[in-house]
């Protein structure tokens, strides 16, 4: 895969740590900004996602003009399914949230990691050690403990949750697979996928959200609302870029593990900073999830070092 141009000189684990930190900080920022937008302005969810991807492409265009990266010509048919899977991921995730309780929604999200492992095992012939698979047990248990009292199931909600998990898993797997298959880096792939996904989303949005009038993409919106949405788009550029970079340089499973870590940080942060209630079950759930993540990280690093040793011993 083509090497990334970085504004600083880091290598190996240092680069990965920097990418994870950038994703963590930008993800936390965008949660608070988006919450403000939804509560104070009532901006529609899918339309905001469209703005995010349009801003991502604009940010990449500026980066390209500043010679941060060089675009690589890609046939659109090679990334069309990636762009479509992104739209499906957004649509089904929103429908899952609308038709399920928060607990059921969170449990469904936790199922993304094992589905990714299943897809990569069946279709990409990737192998995962038993020890690595076992790290999913405390993580899933942690999510269940966090969501136990708010889990309710219905046919329509379960259908949307299942479709959301499958499409999200495919999207994340393809983000990494396409970078290796097409020999491009995260910026080069996102440069083409962002506008394509924006076009697909624009075609889907009218089925879910109004285009004009109150709550529509074309307003009317106040200047503070537009400025805040623009700021959200700038942060989304950093989020999207860091997601692609993390998956391209590690794996979709590693990114999902990091997602569970961010969820724990959000819960703890809400308790420490805003005195949000935190039950004993939730505290135990956070500990279980963190135990699974630490175990995964330890096993992943150990397997990487073992692989390096085997390569070094080859004649």
């Amino acid at each position: 895969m083509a090497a990334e141009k970085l504004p600083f000189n880091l290598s190996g684990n240092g680069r990965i740590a920097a990418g994870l930190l950038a994703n963590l900080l930008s993800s936390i920022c965008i949660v608070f900004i988006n919450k403000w937008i939804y509560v104070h302005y009532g901006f529609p969810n899918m339309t905001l996602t469209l703005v995010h991807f349009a801003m991502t492409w604009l940010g990449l265009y500026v980066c390209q003009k500043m010679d941060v990266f060089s675009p690589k010509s890609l046939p659109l048919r090679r990334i069309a399914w990636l762009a479509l899977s992104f739209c499906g991921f957004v649509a089904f995730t929103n429908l899952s949230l609308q038709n399920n309780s928060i607990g059921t929604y969170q449990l469904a999200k936790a199922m993304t990691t094992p589905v990714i492992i299943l897809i990569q095992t069946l279709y990409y012939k990737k192998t995962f050690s038993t020890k690595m698979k076992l790290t999913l047990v405390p993580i899933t248990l942690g999510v269940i403990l966090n969501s136990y009292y708010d889990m309710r199931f219905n046919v329509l909600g379960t259908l949307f949750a299942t479709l959301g998990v499958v499409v999200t898993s495919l999207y994340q797997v393809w983000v990494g697979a396409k970078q290796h298959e097409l020999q491009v880096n995260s910026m080069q792939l996102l440069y083409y996928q962002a506008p394509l996904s924006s076009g697909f989303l624009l075609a889907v949005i009218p089925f879910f959200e109004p285009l004009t009038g109150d709550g529509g993409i074309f307003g009317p919106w106040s200047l503070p609302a537009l400025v805040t949405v623009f700021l959200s788009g700038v942060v989304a550029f950093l989020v999207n870029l860091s997601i692609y970079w993390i998956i391209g340089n590690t794996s979709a499973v590693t990114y999902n593990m990091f997602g569970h870590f961010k969820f724990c940080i959000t819960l703890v942060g809400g308790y420490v900073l805003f005195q949000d209630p935190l039950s004993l079950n939730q505290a135990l759930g956070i500990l279980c999830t963190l135990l699974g993540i630490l175990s995964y990280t330890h096993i992943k690093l150990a397997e990487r070092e073992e692989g390096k040793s085997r390569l070094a011993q080859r004649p």
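Confidence is low (pLDDT under 50) at residues 1-10. The chain is about 75% helix and 0% strand.
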